[in-house]
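Contributing new records

If you add data, match the layout below exactly. Sequence lines come first and carry their own label; structure lines follow with theirs. Keep one chain per record. Anything else will be rejected by the validation script.
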Amino acid sequence: VSLLGDGPTNTSLIEVASNSAGFAVASSDVTIDGFRFESADGATNTVGVLIDGTPASFSNVVIGDTAADIDTLGNFFVDLDTGLQVNYSQSSNLTIGTGNSFLGGVDGIVINGAADATLSLSGNTINDTAFSGQSGDYVRLEDTALFAPDDPTVIDAKNARFEGLKGIEMTAEQ
């Protein structure tokens, strides 16, 4: 299933109400690209996209553009409690494609894993994802997310932007 909007600056606005997600994904082979997920006025506990792999594994879930889909739309996640939340308890895989922006809100990306499951992050990268104005974390890993004993995942963020700075251009203090 491909859910393709007109682009985050155009008319593809998904307004997220309190205690809900703009899109909830609980299956495989899903692409979400070209949307603007925004918290409704006064809404709390909002999530732009929730990928829930706790009942079963998921594969080929793509958020944003990929090399096969070069429309350069991506997604905007604006003023949400969590822009992208990934929960998994079965071995699964996810692609965070290009063109995604997390603007304001609390946390950008939250990945919550289970000790006996693995999540494969395609290319171990968040590509050119942009983060700006979060009051919490840009990326937060919880409950052994992306961790395999003796083989930890190193997330490639060199092309991502944090408050306008590319990861590769930042100093250790930043």
